[in-house]
């Protein structure tokens, strides 16, 4: 075989290797991106489940005529705001706004539950007792879904930042995605006081 054929075959072989590496790398980026979207969808599904449960218990509480309307109104407003936010998982600001709205909803609902303790007739209804059981499971599901999301983000971000896939990521416009972060202030342990006399 002459030298020009060897050079040509080597060049064609190199082109094929680069082509297949590029296809494999690109498909890996697509798979990781779709994985992140799927896991984020699971996070949203669990938040929707919580919102649905909140709606159910709000109806139960509204049926209790003497219940404090201001607390109930606060929860209803927080629920409305939390469902209006559209999240772009590539945008840290929209993810942070979503987290803040969910934290506000959870906080206002916690206040509602504290007030509900003063209404023994409400606490004995089957719907209210069922809600208390279901919300604990839902909060656990939300926590697991957020952890799964952060794991998918870690996998995606590693793929986007590692060499040589970083070349393809930049070429096709894939950038690092933000993690789901804890709410502000949660890094501090809550102060617990017992006023036992």
Model description:
The protein is mainly alpha-helical and 197 residues long. Helix content is 75%, strand content 0%. The chain has helices at residues 3-62, 69-84, 92-116, 120-123, 126-161, 165-171. The relative contact order is 0.13.
What general form does the structure show?
A: rod-shaped
Question: Could you tell me the number of beta strands?
Answer: 0
Percent of residues in β-strands: under 5%
Give the number of helices.
6
Structural class given helices, strands, pairing?
mainly alpha
The arrangement of helices and strands along the chain is HHHHHH
Uncertain runs are: 192-197
The helix content is over 70%
* Main beta sheet: none
What gap, in angstroms, lies between the N and C termini?
Answer: 99 Å
**What's the gyration radius in Å?**
26 Å
Mean pLDDT: 77
Topology summary:
Layout: H1 3-62, H2 69-84, H3 92-116, H4 120-123, H5 126-161, H6 165-171
Helix pairs in contact: 1-2, 1-5, 2-3
What are the salient characteristics of this protein?
6 helices; 197 residues; mainly alpha; disordered C terminus
